[in-house]
Predict the structure.
Amino acid sequence: MATLLIVVNVVLATLVVVVLLRRRVSEAPPAPTPPLRDDLLDRELADKEKRLREREAGIDERARELAQRDRDLEKRALAVADNERAVSERLFRIDQRVAEARSELERVAGMTAAEAREALRASIEGEARELAAKRLQEIDLALQQESRVRAARLLSEAMQRQASAFVAETTVAVVDLPNDEMKGRIIGREGRNVRAIEAATGADVIIDDTPEAVVVSAFNPVRRFIAKTALERLVADGRIHPARIEEVVAKVTAEVNDTLVVAGEQAVNELGLTGVHPELIKLLGRLKHHVVGGQNVLSHSLETAMLAGALAAELGMSAAQARRAGLLHDLGKAVGHEGEGHHADVGADVAARHGEREEIVRAIRTHHDTDPDTVLGTIVYIANVISKTRPGARREQIDSFIKRATDLERAALTFEGVEKVFAVQAGREVRVLVDFSRVDDAKALVLSQDIARKIQDELTYPGEVRVTVVREARATEIAR
């Protein structure tokens, strides 16, 4: 708008100047110029005057348009101002209505807005906690299932690694021969003697390139013992044929059964027990030929019975009942493949069928549980653990034991504040001595968890390893 006014002013000033020049020219005396030149000048001035008038008319029209636009803009500005006032008034009325509605809601609900927000927050928080708990439960169940699968896989891998050594140790017996010619006589014509031995004893006879030796293999230790004894007598006698084999095997079987009964009766009499069923006595005798980890199962049962009796006597309970439960706790191992399930359950079922009391049956069934449901079961569990884990109870290579104990101590020594570490209880417990000035009670608890986690993640060990952190302050003074 300002620019247009400036242009108009400039044009008007130009017109004024032109008019003044024309007036001065008209008043001045005529110059002695030729008539033709004057006509040209008049025509030129007339053309310029015409163009100026046309431009002036266009400027006037443009000015009128701008003035009209200014009036329109002013009207629009006034309309916008009116709309703003109307919107402000409407917003004010809305705020009033919201405040009135909030007051009415607070009056009806009986709580303020802050209280309502707090109630809503608590409700949402409760729902979130419930959803989180359900999600955690689902995750826990999934982890449990995954851990079972992984544990089964790791167990199968461990069993695969140890299968050869275990089978060679627990299922094989070697029969010495005077010479290699005896192998041919054991085999017999077309292998009839070997087949007769295997059919009569239920054990496999392996004849290979081993000089002056024959291997007898069977998972049942009693059958393996019968086959080994019968084969030794046949070799010593020299008469080996199917009829003689059946005769010797039958005789050895009867003798072994008698020795099993005698061994069972000796165990029962040694503990001073009475009223034990003959079938249970026979099963106890069969434990004489079972070996677990280099420990004879019958000897282990006797030792467990004695320890259980001593513990029961200290607690004021029946020592005879505790000895009975301790003697029968591994009875299921004598049943072998004839019973299905864990040997504790099999032994408990056998004991129940042959008239043992419910307390004895429960103790047998729970002797591997870390939290038995009866006091007698707890006593048998403790006695069983002591008998198995005492130093020298089970055979183990000294090098592997020393390495495992060294690894346990080294793993615990890597933590800050640890002064000394001792692997005790045949490597089943780690005692950690810490500096009391650097490790407080709370840190001691965390330290025991960290050490146990590191042992679990990095080391390989049988069973469980207990981590005990010892923190103590000592004050010493000398009296002179």
Remarks:
- The chain has five domains: 2-85, 112-170, 174-258, 275-389, 398-470.
- The first strand starts at residue 172 and ends at 176.
- Residues 35-109 form the longest helix (75 residues).
